[in-house]
Amino acid sequence: xxxxxxxxxxxxxxxxxxxxxxxxxxxxxxxxxxxxxxxxxxxxxxxxxxxxxxxxxxxxxxxxxxxxxxxxxxxxxxxxxxxxxxxxxxxxxxxxxxxxxxxxxxxxxxxxxxxxxxxxxxxxxxxxxxxxxxxxxxxxxxxxxxxxxxxxxxxxxxxxxxxxxxxxxxxxxxxxxxxxxxxxxxxxxxxxxxxxxxxxxxxxxxxxxxxxxxxxxxxxxxxxxxxxxxxxxxxxxxxxxxxxxxxxxxxxxxxxxxxxxxxxxxxxxxxxxxxxxxxxxxxxxxxxxxxxxxxxxxxxxxxxxxxxxxxxxxxxxxxxxxxxxxxxxxxxxxxxxxxxxxxxxxxxxxxxxxxxxxxxxxxxxxxxxxxxxxxxxxxxxxxxxxxxxxxxxxxxxxxxxxxxxxxxxxxxxxxxxxxxxxxxxxxxxxxxxxxxxxxxxxxxxxxxxxxxxxxxxxxxxxxxxxxxxxxxxxxxxxxxxxxxxxxxx
Amino acid sequence: xxxxxxxxxxxxxxxxxxxxxxxxxxxxxxxxxxxxxxxxxxxxxxxxxxxxxxxxxxxxxxxxxxxxxxxxxxxxxxxxxxxxxxxxxxxxxxxxxxxxxxxxxxxxxxxxxxxxxxxxxxxxxxxxxxxxxxxxxxxxxxxxxxxx
Lengths: 489, 148
Prior knowledge:
The complex is a heterodimer of chains A (489) and B (148).
Chain A: H1 3-15, H2 17-35, H3 41-52, H4 57-82, H5 93-102, H6 106-138, H7 144-161, H8 166-180, E1 183-184, E2 191-192, H9 206-224, H10 241-263, H11 269-283, H12 296-311, H13 313-319, H14 325-336, H15 345-348, H16 350-371, H17 375-383, H18 390-405, H19 409-426, H20 431-454, H21 461-464, H22 466-488
Helix pairs in contact in A: 1-16, 2-4, 2-16, 3-4, 3-9, 3-14, 3-18, 4-5, 4-6, 4-12, 4-14, 4-16, 4-17, 5-6, 5-12, 6-10, 6-12, 6-13, 6-16, 7-8, 7-20, 7-22, 8-20, 9-18, 9-19, 9-20, 10-11, 10-12, 11-12, 18-19
Chain B: H1 9-27, H2 43-62, H3 75-109, H4 116-137
């Protein structure tokens, strides 16, 4: 089946009333989550997964994806108006977005960010259409040794890209992989690291861990912080011609950079926005304006984070490898419906596959139309005091954790990882490599075992096979390059 | 030679990694190790635990040179929320969703200083929404306490 046929099937699937509704629910939830500081996308996605048990697979996927890219739009509003990032991927937007708001140009900043995000979203969707099918054909030639190398590459990049220091992040990745091995061994059925606890025989539920490490610990941290004042004058929504002239090239550059960084395992929206800000600042003729309200510093990162959020779905759809936490959660949601993401998905489930991709266009269009008109409503929501927000979030997380296995056990897992996540934040340990390790651990072990059987126990196979060899070479160069750049800045 | 810095993030991260790695190493000792050609269930867990312990030791040694300090932890705000999130699962079967949800909200609210009236109103409102939602979605949860 050709790409065009697929796109047609996808459009019809995405425009079906039920799916359209799911898309709207997803993007609106995403915007809401984005606007509210103290709830991240990973938390929101993990919270809504139990609800997807009751929906169709395609509807669930459309909704969860909508949350992820919807949050990239919503997060901007809080960053610009309150100087608090609504979302981790809009942290850099505060640097220039808030100074713009102080000058009365909040409306212009929001418009540029929305238009930039929309453009980036459209380009990223086109890239997904173009690349997923050829990539999933390549996947047929990937052997267990190559998969092992790819998983290790993903972990290595997640570690080097992480915000905090590198050595502790390596520890987190190792710890996560170790936790991923808890439970019955796939080959022999032996119990590993279960300490005789019956509920652990199936392994640790990743969704409960994400709820704890991201959801609960975010609430604990948010309660410790005080909020700043908000700027209520939004000003004209229309950027001046000169502002457009400076913003448009930044939007193009941000889109290109974000699309590229989203595809890399370990990448996604957060790293894309930081990289784009750094790029805009170093390319600018007057870098001294950055931090004082340079519109490029809003346009670039805002386009980049949305592009990165969407292209990070390419490895998931084409190879079945999630590159970040939200993708791992979406993988989990599909598995619950008995669908395995990866090569073959487009032929086995064309409606789901193409419907999902096409829904991103629909969703971005909704966001373009909704974002600016709804600013007034979101502003009111930012003013909702936190005391009335966090108890319901705790309750709905507790209900969600309970419904994962209908026992109290996952609630306890969530709480333990909530404490652990809180300690990690205090110790500046990155949670992302750990979650990826938790997810990739069992897959890595399975492929390592197969690779070693096939090579008769010869570990040099990783370097001599062309595919895994080039993955390792690419990984070494990328890690060295990123570490060099980190040292420089 | 620098002195030991008691609030160092590296020191405590290191201790955390060594502790977890050591426990995992002991626990995985009962699994068959196997060899590289045919890895047993204990192969990777043991290898990873050893790496984790080594990384932890490295961090402890490094803490003599690094200066990043830990932020203080505020247990007063943390404990009610953590209690609430465990409480719900344990209480659900006996109390039913409505009461368990109300109590969970009330416990969590202890983290913030708000008036009792507002807290109770919010708790009952959210518990009602949750109960109606669970009824509509037909979740397998008891909604109200059973009278046996």
